[in-house]
């Protein structure tokens, strides 16, 4: 194999900088959406907490024929408002926004490929952790919520929702990782070394 490696005399063609620039645009857009997500989660948590503070299960369920189920429903809503998801999710989204700034700038400049890709992989990693945490937190609450509903059909809905949610996150993160692998491959440093194809080699 070593003897078959050749040095090409053709001029080396540098990789297109638009692979990194395209990645910069993509991460920049996702970074802005993360900022919106952080604001939405923080505001949503505040609204939920304010709404729950005004709920009185005894008063609301006083005339309900099934008072126990009514109170359990109100308790589930209260638990949702008290979930750390609102604060932790907002923190994750804010971190993604902050991390996207140097990542997008370095990828756009296309001058320090190694550092830019390292930041990009870090951004994808944080994004994956944040999405898994968000889905897991919501699914943990929804399991309790569906269990409180005395309908067998709701168990199928819960199972389908869980599969679709986790599957969607895994698919999304796989797409992001595959795109970054493609960018890494397309922007690899050029070389004059050539390895002849085994399909075209001839024995002497």
Task: Walk me through this protein's architecture.
This protein has 204 residues and is mostly helical. The chain has a two-stranded antiparallel sheet with strand order 1-2. 74% of the residues lie in helices and 2% in strands. The two termini are 15 Å apart. It has 6 helices and 2 strands. The longest helix is centred in the first third of the chain and has 36 residues.
Q: Please mark out the parts with pLDDT under 50 across 5 or more consecutive residues, or reply none.
A: 199-204
Helix and strand element order? EHHHHHHE
Give the class from helix and strand content and strand pairing: mainly alpha
Give the integer mean of the pLDDT values. Answer: 82
Descriptive terms for the model:
single chain, 204 residues, mainly alpha, 6 helices, disordered C terminus
Overview in brief:
The chain has helices at 18-53, 57-60, 67-81, 85-109, 113-147, 152-186, and strands at 6-7, 193-194.
SSE topology sketch:
Blueprint: E1 6-7, H1 18-53, H2 57-60, H3 67-81, H4 85-109, H5 113-147, H6 152-186, E2 193-194
Antiparallel strand pairs: 1-2
Helix pairs in contact: 1-3, 1-4, 4-5, 5-6
């Amino acid at each position: 194999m070593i003897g078959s490696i050749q040095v090409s005399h053709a001029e080396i063609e540098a990789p297109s900088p638009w692979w990194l620039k395209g990645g910069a645009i993509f991460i920049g857009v996702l970074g802005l959406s993360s900022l919106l997500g952080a604001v939405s989660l923080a505001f949503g948590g505040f609204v939920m907490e304010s709404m729950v503070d005004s709920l009185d299960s005894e008063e609301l369920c006083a005339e309900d024929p099934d008072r126990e189920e009514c109170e359990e429903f109100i308790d589930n809503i209260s638990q949702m408002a008290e979930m750390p998801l609102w604060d932790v999710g907002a923190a994750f989204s804010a971190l993604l926004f902050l991390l996207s700034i140097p990542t997008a700038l370095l990828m756009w400049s296309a001058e320090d490929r190694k550092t830019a890709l390292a930041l990009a992989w870090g951004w994808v990693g944080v994004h994956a952790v944040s999405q898994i945490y968000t889905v897991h937190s919501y699914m943990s609450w929804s399991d309790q919520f569906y269990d409180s509903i005395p309908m067998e059909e709701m168990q199928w809905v819960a199972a389908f929702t869980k599969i679709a949610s986790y599957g969607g996150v895994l698919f999304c993160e796989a797409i992001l990782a595959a795109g970054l692998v493609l960018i890494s491959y397309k922007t690899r440093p050029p070389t004059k070394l050539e390895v002849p194809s085994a399909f075209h080699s001839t024995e002497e």
